[in-house]
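re: ur question from the group chat, yeah i did fold both. here u go
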Amino acid sequence: MSNANLAKIDLMEPIVHQIERISRDIPGWSPIDELFALFTLVYSTAGLRGDVIEIGSWCGRSSVVLGLVAALIGKTRVHCIDLFPSKSDWHRNPDGTYSIAVRIGEQTFAACVEQTVWAEPFERDIAPIYQTHESTFDLFSTAILQNNLEQVVIPHKGTSTTFAQAASNLLKCKLAFIDGDHGYRAVCDDIQNIEKFLIPGGWICLDDAFTNSKGIDRAVSELIISSGNYELGQQLTRKLFVARKK
């Protein structure tokens, strides 16, 4: 059975309508124009060998869109990397902001440390999730199953570093979407970890670049724009920067 037979794809319905429909009830911050841009970029890689890697899947809002297009073009899987924090993994800092510390095996992984989450967006967008779900992974799993994408989308609980350490050297990536921890060091790690798998002609996409996250801006400027390793670098939507590896 081909991947296209696994997902709910209507070849007669405009893709943007399908994106709106499947992402409507999934918590997250990726706007429709960004999701449509990601869909289009992955669709353009149909002739390239390799998979899609997403860093920062949260509840699966962008994951289902990446999974939808991966199923449509076939022979492509989506590796979704996230700490998938539970309610107990969040803690409030002395200044009132929030950070994460997730225990996985014998290690504890911290996130939202350099750029913490302000109290207002935490209480408005994040806290309500835990009123009905123990973990963001519960919502993520539901979104994947409801869209019949479980054979296309592969979750990995951890960081880009743990993923890179565990992944096969044969893994090839034709598009990476980085939307995890927005701190400078974390974004640098994500870019450098993904570059090990990114093929020539493959795309790297970063959420919230050149908007209000100085850590992302600095990392993109240093490791992508000024590196000489990428071409066609462009702020594609109001919050999505993309570039193609040479």
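okk and heres the other one u asked abt
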Amino acid sequence: MSFVLTAGQAADSPQFIPVLKKVRIRLPVGRPRSRPGAVAADKAYSSRANRAHLRKHRIKAVIPEKNDQAANRKKKGSRGGRPVTFDAGLYRDRNTVERLINRLKDWRGIATRFDETPESYLAGLELRASMIWVGDLL
């Protein structure tokens, strides 16, 4: 799990690559991997830059195509390229992340962002995440 704090008005999609660079996947043995096998995200992350980054690093993108992107691709005909691949089974597992975000927001301070400094907000996020993690281990 990793967090990247931004200004409140910042969009989510530009933060996709910085968050992905901070993610480390722990397996039962060996050092943590920095490249996941697949990334599931919602339509907000369906930009050309995000898909190119995933393709460059050989990471499977499980991101549905936006309706306007599909329409523009179809409008171009054979020059528009192929539709993006999409694994609906892997996409269903994305709700795990959504449920975790809801559990993080159970703390009022995280949901309402009352903290004065980014450092204290990030500390609250990390504390709440560790509490969830330890609670799930018990």
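fwiw on the second one: The CA atoms of residues 6 and 115 lie 14 Å apart. The chain has two domains: 1-90, 94-138. idk if thats what u expected
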